[in-house]
Amino acid sequence: MAFTAPAKATFTGIFPAFAAVTDEAYAFWSARAACIVDPIQTCLADDAELACMLATAHYLTQQGIGTGTDAQMAAQGASGFKRIKSGSLELEKADNPAVSGMGDWGTTSFGVQLYPLLKACVGGPRVTGTGCVVGGNGFNGFAGVIPPWGS
């Protein structure tokens, strides 16, 4: 059964910063979030609804919707800034290695909260260009399937 996003009233009750979100925006972005949660809802178990709400909040924030700092910066076109200078005021974001590995999820505080939930459900053996992972499926990433060993 396909995962269904929580009702807008539930979402705005948990995340009051989005109380002014329109029905149309909520419907669109929560449906996108539900698509992320649907294939891993069994793994997420009791956290599936939370994951969907965090993903929805992440998407809305990126659109500049909401009253949080992240959303206000996105609304002004400054969400991805590294360095901003205005007159004598100069701001620079420090590099955070923990967040930089999160990709797009690392761009908002909601995505940073969501990432560990997603990572726990989609982690697994990693394939590298130097060969296959021991106990893996035999694919080395470049040459295709490796023949059985020892014959």
Distance between the termini: 45 Å
Number of strands: 2
What kind of oligomer do you see?
Answer: single chain
The spatial strand order of the largest sheet comes to 1-2
Task: Indicate the percent of residues in helices.
Answer: 40-55%
Number of helices: 7
Q: Which residue ranges are poorly predicted, with pLDDT under 50 across at least 5 consecutive positions?
A: none
Secondary-structure content class:
mainly alpha
Element-level helix/strand string: HHHHHEEHH
Whole-angstrom Rg: 20 Å
β-sheet strand percentage: 5-15%
What is the overall pLDDT average?
Answer: 79
Largest sheet data: 2 strands, antiparallel
Task: Give the overall shape, derived from the CA principal axes.
Answer: flat
Please tell me about this protein's structure.
- By secondary structure, the protein is mainly α.
- It is 44% helix and 5% strand.
- The protein has seven helices and two strands, in the order αααααββαα.
- A two-stranded antiparallel sheet has the order 1-2.
- A hairpin with a 2-residue loop joins strand 1 (83-86) and strand 2 (89-92).
- It is flat and about 55 Å long.
Q: What labels describe this entry?
A:
151 residues; mainly alpha; 7 helices; 44% helix
Give a brief rundown of this model.
The protein is mainly alpha-helical and 151 residues long.
